[in-house]
Design a protein that fits this description.
The complex is a heterodimer of chains A (754) and B (81). Chain A has 754 residues and is α+β, with helices and mostly antiparallel strands. In chain A, 29% of the residues lie in helices and 24% in strands. Chain A has three domains: 155 residues, Aldehyde oxidase/xanthine dehydrogenase, molybdopterin binding domain (Aldehyde Oxidoreductase, domain 4, 2-Layer Sandwich); 281 residues, Aldehyde Oxidoreductase, domain 4, CATH 3.30.365.10; 172 residues, Aldehyde Oxidoreductase, domain 4. The termini of chain A are far apart. In chain B, β3 and β4 form a beta hairpin. Classes of the chains: A alpha+beta (754), B alpha+beta (81). Chains A and B meet through β7 and α10 of A and α1, β4 and β5 of B.
Amino acid sequence: MNFDPRFSGRKFASVGTRPIRPDGVDKVTGRARYGADFNMAGQLVGRVLRSPHAHAIIRKIDTSKAEKLSGVKAVITAKDLPDLTDGDAAMYDILDNCMARTKALYDGHAVAAVAAIDARTARQALKLIEVEYEILPHVTDVDEAMQHHAPLINDTIFTEGLQEKPAKPSNVTKRSQFGHGDVHQGFGQADFIVERSFKTEQTHQGYIEPHACVASVSSDGTADLWVCTQGHFVYRQHCAQLLGMEASKLRVTSSEIGGGFGGKTHVWAEPVALALSRKAGRPVKLVMTRDEVFRASGPTSATSIDVKIGARKDGTITAAEATLRYSAGPYAGSWAEIGAMTAFACYKLDNVKTVGYEVLVNRPKTAAYRAPSAPMAAFAVESAVDELAKELGMDPVDFRIKNAAQEGTRSSYGPVYGPIGIGPTLEAVKNHPHMKAPLRKNQGRGMACGFWFNFGGQTCTDLNIGMDGSVSLAVGTVDVGGSRASLSLVAAEELGIAYEHVKAIVADTSSLGYNDMTDGSRGTFSSSMATISAARNAIKILRERAAQMWDISVDDVVWEQGHAVAKGEKHGNLGKLSLKEIAAESGKTGGPIAGHSELVADGAGVSFATHICDIEVDPETGSTRVIRYTVVQDAGKAVHPTYVEGQYQGGAAQGIGWALNEEYIYGKDGRLQNAGFLDYRIPVCSDLPMIDTQILEIPNPNHPYGVRGVGETSIVPPLAAIANAVSNAAGVRMTHIPMSPPRILAAIEAERGE
Amino acid sequence: MVEVTLWGALGQLAGGKSKVEVEAKDIRELFRKLAEQYPGFEPWIDRGIAVAIDGTIYRDTWSKKLPEGAEIFLLPRLAGG
């Protein structure tokens, strides 16, 4: 990378201010175009037939009657999406998830699809497709799936990560282990030990916009795809591979996105839409219904976690251990592995051990959800930490401060930490007025910490300076939370011009080099690095052009606050040249002025947060009300503080829903019982208090401005903070998420001995 | 020569070792030599391994130098949301 990413400690003029976001007016007036807002002449409607069975062999699919229905232009099955994955197991799983091949692996698994002239005809056609299933026994619970007698979902899976390959296949795809020291010895030094088991139910990311796309395949084999995604370059790679196309022949344009949170990081319906369009010879729009979104896309893992933590009387933790079992849906994943890495990452531990098990179940393919896997691990660990503090007679914040990781601490997942923010977030919480506010009857307060890795990745950016001096910034990371505003601020900062003169867009896949998707809290971190690099490249050209205009050496020209300035005694009579003046002459000094950057943004810097929650529990009904909520998180440097606060608040809001209400409920028949927002209740505005935020800025040494990712960490502490609050309010330790009213009431009654 | 710490699953493939020594100047050479010494690593490297050098995690910068005496950890390449 020909770019120095080290933190420079500079003073900022634009970065850190709060201008209005460039996409705001379109979003509030309805002009913004989301996935389902694209339309083409001659467009067909795509619909997908889904398995009603949790686990079944597909014996036969007869599409002949559907094909004969007037208005039907194409019907496809797995035969129309042959396996072109060439041994790439992860891509094969994605392909099989898009369209079941030999077995339906969950209720909602796609088995066929149609394209017709309208939705009514498409729905009629689906009813005419005859599928012959051989129903198999199923398993949807993570603990049951690990039992030796559980129905086997994939008989080619032998547990990875063991010293010897097991003799028999099982639903456990992988065992992973992290830690250091000797936990047995550590527990021997403990005066107090807390040991508990916890469960969390499966939740959906709950993005308001369903998966939606328009696919148009031309007879010459080229294609266009307009789609709601977190990563249009990744979608292009996936679709091109699955359909046997050259990537350059497929142009993917990302729409505005009505939420993704990890659920739009790999393809679901897009290869199906392209295959339908290829067969029909016409554009096809495919929009999932909410029922389909729940049944067939995106949920996070359900988990079962055992935690054991020991401490001396002085409050020093001597050992910590956790066993984490995460459901992966019917395909292999690494979700428990991440949980095992993050579980104890907030703490300084001499003896720590975590073991993760990835477990197949007959549920939809698990997808990432905002700091994937970390919230469940934090729920279990932070609940046990709170309980241990109580047993020790210590304040829970002081107990955490005493044991918090710091610079130089060996992390529980291995490496030694650089500068980190867990200690400062805890100190900020200790001193926050929220911690001193009085509580009323039936109210409880809880707090908890959270950790997330963050990462960067491949990034490409173009910065073009118009002849009027205004700047177009083309980025390839989809804007999921205000990054176009943040990146415009960064371009303005580097060039020394006003924010209003920069217009950022998300370019399509044919207009810019490859970009990894917007995940891992990388959007602003990575693209700001590429934007700084592109702007500095443009400044080199601006200096050269100014040197030409003055007829002096470029070595005598520097860039200061948006102007070329001639340095040296002999140039003392030369005035400054503004960016606008240089741009106006660009046609006569060498043509357009632009800066380009392609880089790998690594060194994202880990992130920590601590949350406080006050909650009121009705002991008669078990219902809850969040009274007050505060988020304290390290941002490294908040480029646009309002959108950093928005990320903090959004993560907390989703965490509140996860902690208190949200849950996939399966019947004994393996079918999802609550595939809609009436029965799967996410929080609405009236459920939430104003979520207070406090941004800490501990600079990331690996970014020129000190930026760290901020998008994910805020969902890590809420489950635990709320569980600690409910436990304190109800007087009974809550160990099962969500803490819905029946579950709280049952816990209260059990405590009372009723 | 750098000392490289492996996480559990990789350690199993290296005959139960948690640390191995490799003569490598950067991440690219480290992966090449590890694949030569332990052929079982190759599919893992293809799938993606992150390298922590003195606490900073690198996922894609294979040109990153491995300073003598640096603490080097191999870690799974993670998904994000």
